[in-house]
Amino acid sequence: MRVALLSMLDYAGEPGEGQKAFIPFAGKTVARRQIELALTLGCERVVCLAENLGPVLIGLQHQAEAAGAKFHVITVPRALSGLVRASDELIVLADGVLPLADEAQDILSGGNAVLVFSAETGIPAGFERIDLNYAWAGALAMPGRLVERLNELPRDCDGIAALLRIALQGRVPERALPDAILTEGRWAMLASAEHAEALEPGWFRRHITAGSGLVPGRLLASWLAGRFGVAWLNRGIRPAYLLGAAMLFLCGALALGWLGMAGGGFALLALASLTSEGGAALDRGERAGNAARPAFAKAMRSFKVLADLALVVLVAQGVDAHLALWPERLFVPFVLVGLVWLVPGLSALRWGALCGDRALLSLLLACAAFVGILLPVTQCLALALIGCGIAFSRLGPRLTQA
Question: Is the same domain home to 219 and 150?
Answer without folding.
Answer: no
